[in-house]
Structures are given as C-alpha cells and as structure tokens.
C-alpha cells in the first residue's frame, strides 16, 4: 500500500506516493534524485546519509520516508543559497577537508547543525558533533580545522 | 625551463566544488532507466560443498528478472581456480562464509531480498580451517579442494633460498614459503650483548572505505557492455571482466566513477562480473551495491599475521642479527603478492644487520580472502621490528631515535639481495623528528597527578615505490586551455597534483589546465591507482605529454612568427618573442590554425608514454604520546606527529591530508581495529558499529612534517606518498603504550582489556 | 527490508486500539534498532505501529515528579538543563548513546524496550527509581523499572502493550546521580560496562540513601543491591568505595563476548562503581535540587 507523503525538501514542497518500507534516504536518492546524500552502511553507523530534519541531523537510512510527513528536510543540495556556498563548504575546500568526498555531505550537515545551535564550538565540541560521521581519508584534522575556520567567518559575517 | 610556479602550491582540489555541493557522481549515483536491483546470496558456511542450487522459486517470483549461479559463467581459457577474482561466484565448493553462491536482479529491493530467501541451496558442510597455525599442520583439512600451491617460490634471493623446507610435509594450505638468510646468524647472536624475542600478532583489518562497492552494468549493444564502477583502476577493472567472462576488451566500456575510498580494497572491483552477468540475463541495467555487512564478509580485508621475531644488538646499539618466522593468514585464496616475502623484505630494507634468517609462510584458511590494504603488510612488519628496536634501546638505555639513526641502511649499503640501496630519505625523516618539539621536550612523566600513565613512542616505516608504466595525452583546446586526457582514477587528489605537474611543464598556470578523466575507450593506458604509484608514474606521463605539447606549440609558433624557438616564451596568454613581446600568438589562435578548412597546420597534441622504473622507497616516521588509565587500560592518544619523505611535495595541502588520513588508519590498527572470527569462520563484528574505525573524537590533530629528500626519477622529484603514512604510527603508539605501562603489548589492537591484562600480569582469556 | 503494513495512529487511544487488533504489530519509535534488524532481515515484521504522531508519548513534564513520554528522543532528554542538574545520570547516559544523529532519532522508550543489557539509559533510570507506565486498550499499569527487563531483547511488555511514559520521583536536596561507562572508542560505541549511582546526603555529608545499577554486567540491567547496602550511614571514604566496588563486581553476572571477557567486565564494574559514586557524591554536594 502506498502513502501520500507531503513534506519539504530544501525549502521546496514535495508530495509523492511512497511505500512504507522506503527510507527517507531511498526517496531522496531514487525518487527526488538528490544524490548528494550517500549510503555508506545503511545501519546508522557511518553518517554518510546525514540530513537535517527540522534542523536536526539524523540518519536518513534509518528513517522511514512516511515518517517525514510534514517535516522540513535539508540535504547537501540545500546548503547553497543564491549560488553562494555555505561558510563550511568554502572552508572545507580551502582547508583540504575534502578528499574522496563520500562523507563530505554528511560532514557538512552535521557541521552546519552544530554551528546553528552553537556558533562558537570548541575543538572537543566539533569532534563530538562529527563523531557520527566516519571519514577514512582525512584523519579529521583538516575537517575540524575547516569547521573552526567557518566559525570565524560566520562570526564576522 | 620556466621558474617553478605550480609545483609546491597548496592548491584546493580541482573537484572540491562538486564534492561540497554533493554533485560528484559516485557509482551508486548513476541512474539509468529501468535499472534493476542486484543482490547477492552468500554462503552461510565457511567451507562446504554445494550439492544443489534450486533457483526456480526465486525465478517464479513476480518482479524477479534474473537469477545467476556458477552455471551462468561462460567457460573461459583464462579461468584460474586458484585466483580470488575467479571466485566471484562459488563453483561446487564455498571456501569462506560470505562467498557469493548466487545473485538476483529484481525490480526493487524487497523483491530482490525475498528472491534470495527463495533460492534453495543444499550444502554439505566441510571442516573449517580456522587458524593458520592449524592450517599448516600436516594433517590439517584442506581449505579448498583445489590445492593452491606455489610451484616456483620465486624470489630474487635465489642464492640464499632454502628449498628443502620439508616439502613432503607441506599441506596444500601453505601456498608460499621462503627462507631468506644471510651471514652467520648463530654467531651474530652469540656476539650480541642484548637479544629480544617476542611473537607479535596482528588481526585481520578492513580497508574501511566509507563507500561500499557499487557497480552498474548495461548491455547497450548485443555484444557490448557498459559498466560504471567505483574501482581503483579502469583498466584493471576492465581486465578483470575480460579474464573472468571472456569478453574482448573493446566490447567493454568501463567508466570508473568517483570513488569513495579504496585503500587497496577496490583494485579490481571484485563484483563487476556479477552485475555484467545479471544484466545480460535480464536484458536490463543492473545496479549492484554491497551492504556494509557484505563488505566485511564478502570483500577482501587485509591479512592477519603472526610474527615471531628475535633481534640482537651490541652494547653500543649496533644491530647484529634478525631471526624469525612469519606466518600470514591470507584467507581462502592466495594473495596477489607473497605477503610473507614482502614482510621479510621490508624488515631487512631499513636497517643493517650482520646476519639474518627469516622464514615466511603464506597460509590459507576458510576466511574472507585477503586483499591489499595500503602498504600491504608493511604495518605488520613495522609493528614487530620497530617494537624490538624500541625494546633494545630501552634495555641498553639508548635514545630510540639515535639507535635507529645509527643502524639505518642507506644509499650504497647492500640489501639482502646484494644490490646497493638507492638514495633514501630515512635519515632526513628521523632528523626532522629529532628536531620536533615532541621529541626535544623531556619525555612525559610516567605517572601524572591525574593518576594517568603517560608514554611517548617512536616508529619508522618504509614502502618501496610503485613503479608502473603510464600514458597520457595533452591537447591544445579551442579556448586556449590545455586538456589532459587520462585514464587514471583520482583516488587521493591526484588530478590536482597532475594538473600542477602539467602546468609546470607547460609553463602556464594551473587554471589553464582541464583534467579530463576518460574511460579506456578514450584514454591511453593508465595503471591502477595503488601502491603509491599515481604521481610517480602518471605524473611522469603527464609531464612528458605536457612537455611534448609545449615543444610542439613553440615549434608551431616559431614557424608562424618566423623566429627560432629559443627566442620564444610561453605563458597563459600565448607564445611571444621574448625580446619583442608584441610579436605573439595566443594559444587560441594557435589552436584555430590547426582546426580550420584547408589549414596549413595540423592540431597540436602532446603524448606521454613512460615507464618509471627507478625505485624511490619512501619513509615515514611517527611520534605518538598517549595516556593510559591504569585502572581500565584505556589508551588515549594525546599527540601524534608524522614526518614523511615525499621527495618533492607537488601539492603540500593534499599530501598533508593524505598523510593524516594514513596516520589515522594506523592509529585505528594500533588501538581498535580487528575483524573478529569465530571458530566456524563467521565474522562476529560485520558492522561499522562493532568494527571500530577511529571517529573524530578518537584522534588529536595530526602534526605533519613534509620532508623532501632526493631520490628516484619521479616528476619534479616526487616520490610515492600514499602508502608510507599508514606504517609508522602503529609501532609509535605501541611503543608509547609500552613506555607508559612498563611492559610490552605484542598483540594488536592494543585494546583496553589487553593493556589492563598487561599491567596486571594477567594472561589472555 | 520486507514489505509491511504501516499503522499511523494519531493519539494514544487509537494506537492502543490498533495494537489490540494487530498485536503482531511492532511499535516504531526512533527506528534505530528495529530498522537495522529489518534491513538485515534478522527480524520479519508484519506491521509497524508508528508512535511518531502520538502526542501523549511525546509529553514532558516536571511538576514535582518528572514524566518523560516514551517517544522523547534521548537527545531531547540529554539537552534538558533540569535533567542535567537534578537527574544527572540520565542526562549523561542519554547523551552517550550513538552519535548526534542517532540521539536525534532514538527514543527513551526504544532504548528500554529494546532491552539490550548495555542500554545507557537503563542504569541511570534504575538508580533514579524510575517507574514505567504501561498502557494497553484495557488500561494502564505501573511497574518499577527493576521488574521490566526479562532477558536480553525481552521485557514484560505484552504484545498489546506500549510503554507510555517513564516517571521519576522528585529530586531531593543533596541528592546527586552519575553515570559512567567504558567503551574502547570515544565516539559511537556500545558500553562494555556502564554503572550509575545515586546518593542522597544529610547535612553532615553522611549518606542517607544510595543506589547503584549496572549495565552490560548481567543479562539485564540490574541494581547492585548488596553494594548499595554498604553505603547508608557512612561517609564516602576511599576504603568504603573499594569495598562497595568489590561487592558490586561480585554481584555482577557478566559474560564473555566480542567486546570483553567476563573477568575484565567484573573488574570494570568495580572501578566504574567507585567512579560513579564519586561523581554522584560531587553532584549531591553541589545539588540543592528542589526544595521540599
């Protein structure tokens, strides 16, 4: 049986029919073609599928799409406003915080959520916020530095 | 040559913009119309005979479009039963739990999963060979009906090889064994003032790339298949399909997509033939993506090792003898390299000994067949030998860094095969660490006021360079930019560094370069991105192509401007006469001359085709500081420093990042990572929750020192960078823990429980 | 994941009614455990009963007693300042589960109903004297959390029942609680052992009341009653701490598994019991709680 799902993705209203077994991740990727959100483990352990639901990071792989009814979902594709990159995106590029790029969308959303609720995070707080986003390429050093730099830029903005 | 403008610049990646916007296309992101979902049915048994497979119920399920078993594999002359790559589907016998026995393609995931449950496989379980210690016994059951064996035991130490190692007692599970020896070991130990001996174990570890294997196959013509795949080499991936399915190379278009980490685990692809066969049978595109569980059970983790090692030294710290036995558990199929030989070689490569005798065996067990993982088995070698050097320094009350410096095997010193060592940077790496504040400061007080134990440790490691053949094309484009066409896979930021090399060679800025990745249909041969070889080899090819194009551009401009080439200079705008800059032609104009009706000149292209053969072994050293909670055994890494000889840093930003990532993997191996098996060959922790890769909370910042020592013939002095950083932090962390707790932990990972046991003199449970 | 029916009640009565008709339906709260089981096909589920739109299960009230709707996420609980202050152990335990992402999904009820021996909210709730309000279409019953767990993965819940809320009694003056666990990895890990402690002091810093609870130290989260009994009437000296730790480790019934040996777990119970008590003591000294 299919359910009608009304929700918002990157500030755009979306309504479509979904089957209960379809995860939010599957709907984003396969139905809405928002391929920036990645599937790294399917069990909530790697954070590649991190999206914001009503502003809070969640694992889209463990959320049934039907459960997103009425909610506001933000994916990596929604971070760019008026073709201007988010400060964390810019800082990741400048600091070499992007390598293979597979964890990058999830890292971005976790970082953006962190800076929204805590504009002046310490290194420890940044690391805690990113603990659910496994990165195998960088050793996190340049990612953490990028978030620190973005903090400064947002402060000046 | 123009002055250096691009080499050495810390430029952001050429693909960073797409990646932060989520626009980079990975294999799983490819969506073709009517694509089916592919799923694997894997063996629940680690060793069994397949008596029958009944796929009829699965095939009858609505929405199922194809089911394949070994019966669907075409017969090919290249079939090799001893090769892991041909075991993508089990034929009659399964030899590890997780080996695919069938695969389905269906309209959607629930249908595919239900179909798997409807496939009836009758197994006759066979004895499971669980440990290598058990596997080498003469009466051990065979891991496989097909006896893998090493017929030649080839190695470049022929003169010193003992070929009489009880051959008649060999079980078929030993597929490679070799003794490397030199000098009089007994005499050297007799002369030694100190001798240390332990057995070091390292478990199976996993590459841990965050992107699972993904492959899409589509037969777009009757005899032609197009494949999109995350694989470390487009040519190696294509070759795998050629060899396993007998399709001729030009009937395969293999598009290597963005790749979410490989680290040696995605060299060949492993699963592409399954998607190709399913797509053929279903006449539809098939997308096959591994689950994370399958990544653990069905892919190719790194081999585990048991190394008994004995080292002797004189009172003044001079090393005398090295003796030991190396047992490598490679799982169900022979590894692509002879792992124990690699360990022997790496152990004798860095330091001078008077005498040595190392026995090595590569052994099969009924576990997931091992593959490469970043500097394959170099970590295992370094953990053992660097632990012993540290222990010797302690016993002799010598500075561990000085002890290493004193014994380095440097240029012109003889290697075990009697060849002279080439120029290496091990001394420079150690010198850089010796000057670093982490080493010049006093060692941490062992027991702090906070009740924590503290220790500092050092480790050194090396990797022989990846010498491969490579080619590339440089094309002058319509807008005056230079397009580099290449078939290599960008695993680690190589396209950015290659653009810098091309820009440098051409004498233009990097923004003039367009890097075009092409499939083997459109690019000349490129080697697999592995073994720290991409910048070394592809860089050589790109440089040569760029120089070739530059020379042709200058030659053309000389003709047009009626001057000699030596009078000309080239920059982003074009070519001009140095003495009369107004006499010039833009690059765009030069392009147009070669792209016009009845043109006088042909188009301008440059070719690069090289073989980089001169070895350039690269060294990395690490200093680690830890705290240990003596009550729980918990180790916390508080400081990590790594210095690496990179020859010439083409792009320091990208190299630093690569080194830091390698160091993080090394720390993971030191403290947490282990694929655990039970006695039936079943993996106990096939998830990223239970397989503990370091999170952001587990690591400090990584203090990174780039050392530039000459050596090799890489472009602009570059050496391989990828492998070395994973090596030295394992021994550095182990040595730091040892300094903190006052005793040795010889088993990886150094888990809290192991530390607690070591501290309290408890035996392993 | 197999196909299943999705039931989406809009209030508690509707949820309980649906469950009485479809007792095979499994409640879906945060989904962080059940969806993993379904994806790995270790669990075949006919129907899921979504609790997301059931407002009664999302209630939060601190009105003398603290009432926590079972569908509150552990992230919400960890972030409440009054819980951090007066029910510290619960805030700590809730804040250690998984990652930020998981804590934004996983619920308190889910953490308990999943009945993992290592559930990080269970020892804190045990020392805080939690009561579980269980509802079915036939009515409600209230049970102490001690009696809730039966074995790994199994609770006293009947198929037609739901956990409606968790109730914690008023936090008293000079009461403090603490939770500490051991994991090899600093982030994203499962407790090898977790210990919660709660202490109430008199004005002379003599222990009036103490509770200890252990996670991953037995088939179900358990109170360490013999160890607790050593505390009332005493000051928390180092010697007493050692004795209590040792007693707790003897009470524990740990097992060998992939994460640790039973022997090491027993040792951890000893050490962590002492640390949890120190943490609770520090809180109790500083905590004025709610005035009587």
What does this molecule look like?
Chain A contains five helices and five strands, in the order ββαβββαααα. With 157 residues, chain A is α+β, with helices and mostly antiparallel strands. Chain A has a five-stranded mixed β-sheet with strand order 2-1-5-3-4, covered by helices on one side. In chain A, helix 2 crosses helix 5. The longest helix of chain A has 16 residues, at 141-156. With 765 residues, chain B is an alpha+beta fold. Among the domains of chain B are: 31-127 and 211-260 and 266-298, Alpha-Beta Complex (Aldehyde Oxidoreductase, domain 3), CATH 3.90.1170; 422-465 and 615-765, Aldehyde Oxidoreductase, domain 4; 467-611, Aldehyde oxidase/xanthine dehydrogenase, molybdopterin binding domain (Aldehyde Oxidoreductase, domain 4), CATH 3.30.365.10. Chain B has 19 helices and 26 strands. In chain B, the strands form six sheets. Chain B has a seven-stranded mixed β-sheet with strand order 3-5-1-12-9-10-11, with helices on both faces. Chain B has a five-stranded mixed β-sheet with strand order 7-15-14-13-8, sandwiched between helices. Chain B is globular and about 85 Å long. The model of chain B is unreliable at 149-168 (pLDDT under 50). Chain C is of the alpha+beta class. Chain C folds into three domains: 5-50, 2-Layer Sandwich (Uridine Diphospho-n-acetylenolpyruvylglucosamine Reductase, domain 2); 55-168, Uridine Diphospho-n-acetylenolpyruvylglucosamine Reductase, domain 3 (2-Layer Sandwich), CATH 3.30.465; 175-286, 2-Layer Sandwich (Enolase-like, domain 1), CATH 3.30.390.50. Chain C has helices at 12-21, 34-39, 74-79, 81-86, 88-96, 100-103, 108-113, 122-127, 225-229, 238-251, 262-286, and strands at 5-7, 26-28, 47-50, 60-63, 65-69, 131-136, 139-144, 149-151, 154-155, 162-168, 175-182, 193-201, 207-215, 222-223. A five-stranded antiparallel β-sheet of chain C has the order 4-5-10-6-7. A four-stranded antiparallel β-sheet of chain C has the order 11-12-13-14. A three-stranded parallel β-sheet of chain C has the order 1-3-2, covered by helices on one side. In chain C, helix 10 (238-251) crosses helix 11. Chain C is globular. The mean pLDDT of chain C is 95. At the A-B interface, helix 1, helix 2, helix 3, helix 4 and helix 5 of A face helix 1 and helix 17 of B.
């Amino acid at each position: 049986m299919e359910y009608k799902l009304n929700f918002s993705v990157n500030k755009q209203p979306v309504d479509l029919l979904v089957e209960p077994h379809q995860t939010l991740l599957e709907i984003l990727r396969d139905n809405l073609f928002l391929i920036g959100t990645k599937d790294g483990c399917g069990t909530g352990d790697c954070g590649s599928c991190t999206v914001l639901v009503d502003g809070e990071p969640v694992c889209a792989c463990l959320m049934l799409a039907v459960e997103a009814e009425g909610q506001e979902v933000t994916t990596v594709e929604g971070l760019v406003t008026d073709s201007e990159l988010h400060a964390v995106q810019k800082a990741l590029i400048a600091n070499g915080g992007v390598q293979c790029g597979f964890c990058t969308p999830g890292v971005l959303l976790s970082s953006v959520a962190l800076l929204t609720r805590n504009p002046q995070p310490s290194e420890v707080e940044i690391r805690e916020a990113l603990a659910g986003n496994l990165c195998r390429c960088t050793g996190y050093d340049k990612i953490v530095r990028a978030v620190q730099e973005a903090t400064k830029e947002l402060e000046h903005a | 040559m123009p002055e250096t403008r691009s080499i050495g610049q810390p430029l952001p990646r050429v693909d960073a913009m797409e990646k932060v916007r989520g626009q980079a296309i990975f294999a799983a992101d490819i969506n073709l119309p009517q694509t089916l979902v592919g799923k694997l049915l894997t063996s629940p048994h680690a060793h069994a005979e397949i008596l029958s497979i009944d796929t009829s119920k699965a095939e009858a399920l609505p929405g199922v479009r194809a089911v394949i078993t070994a019966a669907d594999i075409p017969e090919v002359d290249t079939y090799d039963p001893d090769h892991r790559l041909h075991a993508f589907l089990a034929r009659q016998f399964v030899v590890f739990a997780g080996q695919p026995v069938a695969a389905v393609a269906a309209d959607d995931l629930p249908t595919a999963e239900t179909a798997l449950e409807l496939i009836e496989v009758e197994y006759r379980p066979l004895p499971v060979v669980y440990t290598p210690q058990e596997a080498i016994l003469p009466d051990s059951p065979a891991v496989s009906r097909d006896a893998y064996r090493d017929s030649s035991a080839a190695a470049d130490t022929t003169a010193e090889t003992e070929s009489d190692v009880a051959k008649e007692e060999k079980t078929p599970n030993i597929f490679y064994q070799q003794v490397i020896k030199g000098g009089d070991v007994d005499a050297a130990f007799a002369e030694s003032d100190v001798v240390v001996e332990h057995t070091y174990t390292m478990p199976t570890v996993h590459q841990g790339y965050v992107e699972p294997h993904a492959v899409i196959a589509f037969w777009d013509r009757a005899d032609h298949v197009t494949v999109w795949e995350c694989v470390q080499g487009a040519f190696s991936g294509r070759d795998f399909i050629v060899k396993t399915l007998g399709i001729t190379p030009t009937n395969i278009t293999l598009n290597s997509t963005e790749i979410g980490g490989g680290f040696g685990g995605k060299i060949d692809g492993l699963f592409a033939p399954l998607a190709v066969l399913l797509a053929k049978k279903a006449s539809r595109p098939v997308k096959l993506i591994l689950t994370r569980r399958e990544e653990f059970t069905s892919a190719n983790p790194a081999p585990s090792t048991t190394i008994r090692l004995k080292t002797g030294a004189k009172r003044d710290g001079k090393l005398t003898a090295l003796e030991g036995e190396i047992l490598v558990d490679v799982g169900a199929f022979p590894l692509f390299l002879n792992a124990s030989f690699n360990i022997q070689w790496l152990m004798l490569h860095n330091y001078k000994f008077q005498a040595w005798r190392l026995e090595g065996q590569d052994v099969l067990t009924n576990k997931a067949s091992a593959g490469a993982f970043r500097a394959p088995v170099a970590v295992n070698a370094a953990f053992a030998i660097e632990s012993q050097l540290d222990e010797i320094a302690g016993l002799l009350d010598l500075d561990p860094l000085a002890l290493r410096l004193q014994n380095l095997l440097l240029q012109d010193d003889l290697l075990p095969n009697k060849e002279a060592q080439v120029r290496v940077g091990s001394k420079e790496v150690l010198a850089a660490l010796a000057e670093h504040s982490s080493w010049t400061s006093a060692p941490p007080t062992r027991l702090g006021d906070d009740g924590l134990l503290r220790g500092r440790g050092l480790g050194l490691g090396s990797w022989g360079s990846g010498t491969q053949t490579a080619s590339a094309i440089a094309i002058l484009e319509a807008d005056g930019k230079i397009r580099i066409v290449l078939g290599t896979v960008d695993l680690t930021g190589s396209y950015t560094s290659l653009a810098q090399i091309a820009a440098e060679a051409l004498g233009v800025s990097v923004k003039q370069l367009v890097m075009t990745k092409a499939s083997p249909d459109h690019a000349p041969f490129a080697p697999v991105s592995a073994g720290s070889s991409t910048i070394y080899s592809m860089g050589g090819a790109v440089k040569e192509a760029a120089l070739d194009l530059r020379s042709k551009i200058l030659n053309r401009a000389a003709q047009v401007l009626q001057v000699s080439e030596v009078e000309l200079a080239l920059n982003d705008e074009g070519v001009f006469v140095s003495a009369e800059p107004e006499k010039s032609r833009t690059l765009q104009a030069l392009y147009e001359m070669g792209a016009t009706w009845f043109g006088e000149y042909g188009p301008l292209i440059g070719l690069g085709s090289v073989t980089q053969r001169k070895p350039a072994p690269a060294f990395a050293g690490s200093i680690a500081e830890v705290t240990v909670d003596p009550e729980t055994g918990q180790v916390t890494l508080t400081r990590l420093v790594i210095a690496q000889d990179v020859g010439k840093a083409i792009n320091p930003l990208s190299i630093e990042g690569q080194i830091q990532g390698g160091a993080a993997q090394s720390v993971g191996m030191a403290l947490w990572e282990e694929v655990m098996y039970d006695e039936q060959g079943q993996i106990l922790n096939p998830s990223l929750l239970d397989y503990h890769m370091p999170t952001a909370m587990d690591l400090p910042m990584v203090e990174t020192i780039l050392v530039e020592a000459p050596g090799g013939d890489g472009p602009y002095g570059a050496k391989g960078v990828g492998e070395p950083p994973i090596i030295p932090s394992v021994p550095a962390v182990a040595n730091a823990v040892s300094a903190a707790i006052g005793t040795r932990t010889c088993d990886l990972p150094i888990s809290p429980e192991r530390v607690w046991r070591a501290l309290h003199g408890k035996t392993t449970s | 994941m197999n196909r299943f029916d999705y039931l989406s009640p809009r209030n508690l009565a509707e949820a309980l009614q649906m469950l009485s008709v479809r007792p095979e339906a499994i409640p879906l709260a945060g989904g962080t455990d059940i969806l993993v089981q379904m994806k790995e096909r270790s669990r075949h589920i006919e129907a899921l009963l979504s609790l997301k739109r059931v407002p009664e299960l999302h209630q939060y009230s601190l009105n003398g007693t603290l009432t926590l709707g079972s569908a509150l996420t552990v992230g919400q609980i960890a972030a409440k300042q009054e819980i951090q202050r007066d029910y510290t152990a619960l805030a700590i335990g809730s804040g250690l589960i998984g990652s930020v992402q998981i804590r934004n999904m996983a619920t308190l009820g889910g953490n308990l109903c999943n009945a993992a021996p290592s559930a990080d909210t269970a020892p804190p709730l045990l020392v805080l004297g939690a009561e579980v309000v269980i509802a079915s279409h036939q009515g409600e019953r209230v049970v102490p959390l001690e009696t809730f767990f039966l074995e790994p993965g199994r609770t006293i819940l009947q198929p037609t029942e739901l956990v409606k809320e968790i109730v914690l009694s008023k936090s008293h003056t000079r009461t403090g609680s603490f939770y500490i666990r051991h994991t090899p990895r600093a982030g994203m890990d499962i407790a090898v052992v977790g210990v919660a402690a709660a202490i109430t002091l008199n004005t002379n810093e003599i222990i009036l009341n103490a509770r200890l609870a252990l996670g991953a130290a037995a088939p179900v989260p358990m109170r360490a009653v013999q160890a607790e009994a050593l505390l009332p009437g005493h000051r928390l000296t180092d010697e007493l701490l050692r004795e209590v730790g040792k007693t707790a480790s003897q009470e524990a019934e740990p097992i060998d598994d992939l994460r640790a040996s039973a022997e090491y777990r027993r040792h951890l119970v000893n050490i962590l019991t002492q640390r949890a008590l120190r943490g609770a003591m520090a809180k109790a000294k500083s905590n004025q709680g709610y005035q009587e």
